[in-house]
């Protein structure tokens, strides 16, 4: 059993969250002695501390929308490993030449969340009428693209009151009561616990987003970064993905 990693610092700005996490395993047994910077999709922030425990070293996580992270890499941002919430974002990074040999490590699906007290009495996606305040992800980010697919699949004509560039921001508006409903990843709903109620979205399993990981071409520690990617795709780590609501590739 792994002890929870120790959270060192959190800085939030412009939808980007930077978190330094100290792993609890012995540094002498870790292949990541120098530490790594992981650019992770907002939806993967829930596993940060566990990843650090398995890696057994200090990891810096930069969590934001996948499109934001891909653009940051293209603009020359530091990072050793990129984790995106969908294949399309990773493909853009690969086309930019900023990552190499991407791998699918898990998948994620959308659900609808409402505040725990559910003031608008929303129990189905068909309850999303003009009186409800609804927040979605922006179509430019993976959760927004999946939202558009599901709206079409369910023949719903819903206009969001707000479009967010990170799924964490959608969840935050629902938890705070600013929104009556939002569509987020199943992993986000699970992490929110009793702060929200979850409503299934029909056909969600038909539109999963593939979580992908790759080593950046600018890393100074390619072997260590590749080892971390291999950890994420390993059978050993599959139980972690499952615990947080993802569907792992490895079994």
UniProtKB/TrEMBL annotation:
GO terms for molecular function: metal ion binding; molybdate ion binding. It comes from Corynebacterium cystitidis DSM 20524. NCBIfam families: modA. Molybdate binds at residues 42, 66, 167, 185. PROSITE patterns: PROKAR_LIPOPROTEIN (PS51257). The keyword Ribosomal protein does not apply. InterPro entries: ModA, ModA/WtpA. It comes from the Bacteria. The keyword DNA damage does not apply. Keywords: Metal-binding, Molybdenum, Signal. It holds the Pfam family SBP_bac_11. Gene3D superfamilies: Periplasmic binding protein-like II. Belongs to the bacterial solute-binding protein ModA family. This is Molybdate transport system substrate-binding protein. GO terms for biological process: molybdate ion transport. Residues 1-25 form the signal peptide.
């Amino acid at each position: 059993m792994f002890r929870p990693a120790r959270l060192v610092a959190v800085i939030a700005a412009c939808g980007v969250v930077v978190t330094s996490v100290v792993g609890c395993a012995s540094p002498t047994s870790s292949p990541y002695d120098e530490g790594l910077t992981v650019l992770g999709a907002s939806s993967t922030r829930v596993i940060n501390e566990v990843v650090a425990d398995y890696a057994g070293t200090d990891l810096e996580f930069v969590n934001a929308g996948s499109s934001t992270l891909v653009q940051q890499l293209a603009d020359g941002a530091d990072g050793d490993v990129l984790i995106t919430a969908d294949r399309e974002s990773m493909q853009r990074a690969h086309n930019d030449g900023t990552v190499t040999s991407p791998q699918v490590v898990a998948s994620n699906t959308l659900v609808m969340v409402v505040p725990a007290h559910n003031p608008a009495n929303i129990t189905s996606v068909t309850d999303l009428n003009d009186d409800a305040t609804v927040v979605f992800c922006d179509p430019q980010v993976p959760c927004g693209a999946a939202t558009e697919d599901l709206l079409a699949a369910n023949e719903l004509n819903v206009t969001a009151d707000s479009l967010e560039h990170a799924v964490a921001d959608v969840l935050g508006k629902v938890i705070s009561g600013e929104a009556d409903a939002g569509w987020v990843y199943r992993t986000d709903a699970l992490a929110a616990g009793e702060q929200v109620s979850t409503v299934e979205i029909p056909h969600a399993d038909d539109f999963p987003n593939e979580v992908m990981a790759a080593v950046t071409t600018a890393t100074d520690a390619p072997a260590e970064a590749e080892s971390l990617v291999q950890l994420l795709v390993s059978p050993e780590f599959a139980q972690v993905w499952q615990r947080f609501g993802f569907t792992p590739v490895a079994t």
